[in-house]
Amino acid sequence: MKYFNLRNRTILGALVRTDFKIRYQGSFLGYAWSLLRPLLVFAVLYVVFVYIFPLGKGVEHFPTYLLTGIIFWNYFVESTVMGLTSVVARGDLLRKVNLPRYLLVFSSALSALVNFGFGFIVLTIFALLDGIMPNLGWLLIVPIVCELALFSIGISLLLSSLYVRYRDVSYIWEVFIQMGFYASAIIFPLSSVAVSMQKWFFINPIVQIIQDARYVLATNTSATIWSTQGVDWLIKLAPFLIITIIFILGVFTFRSRSKTFAEEI
């Protein structure tokens, strides 16, 4: 495949390494922040929603349940935020070097995936401390992560191509992220929502992905799009259709606009 030949893979690897080095350059703790950030967020939310507002009461393995949502959500946010600015941030490189534009977006997604890998190590340790033993079912995390990566890349391709001309896109996306955090059942168990309403949450692909991950990693009592009553096949297919449409739209928009990136930046 010409898009992923040896030259492009080499460039992609160099971009990912550069992203990762620059991110923590000048930081006292450096790469440790890859582990500390999700842990600090988890610690705050755990105290609030276990001891102050006990939303996690009755949820089996709630620490692992909560941390799973945080780590998967952080990957989505980091991948899309970095992807959004990836083309503009490397405008000078585009003018000097002839390279496929899509590599800039892919490097952001892979860089975020490296951070996700560190977070998953922490999540595994927490699961063990929480009395959960890894099993073959954990392998299902691979297609779940691939689904999340595809969704993130599709959004990044779309947003980055628009951001080159319309810088307001970043502010709009920030609002969507803030809304999405509270609308994606990250800080509260979906089981606390009325069954008649749960099915509408699953139209959001992030909800479907996180709930599936929680079912695999934390507890098989986690509500999923497959187990919730009253979910018809149209709703069950909705998140996958949305991901597919966004990815295709992102690829089409990026390809049609990438020819003028160097002149517009």
Estimate nothing, just give the exact number of structural domains. Answer: 1
State Rg.
Answer: 19 Å
**How many E strands?**
0
Q: What percent strand?
A: under 5%
Uncertain runs are none
Helix/strand class: mainly alpha
User: In one word, what is the shape?
Assistant: globular
Number of helices: 11
Distance between the termini: 29 Å
Order of helices and strands: HHHHHHHHHHH
Helix content: over 70%
Mean pLDDT: 83
Largest sheet: none
Topology at a glance:
Blueprint: H1 6-23, H2 33-52, H3 62-89, H4 91-96, H5 102-129, H6 141-163, H7 168-183, H8 195-201, H9 205-217, H10 233-257, H11 261-264
Helix pairs in contact: 1-5, 2-3, 2-5, 3-5, 3-6, 3-7, 3-9, 5-6, 6-9, 6-10
Characterization of the model:
This protein has 11 helices and no strands. It is mainly α and 265 residues long. The protein has one domain (2-23, 56-264). The longest helix has 28 residues, at 62-89. The protein starts with 5 loop residues before the first helix and ends with a helix.
Give me some keywords for this one:
265 residues, 71% helix, single chain, mainly alpha
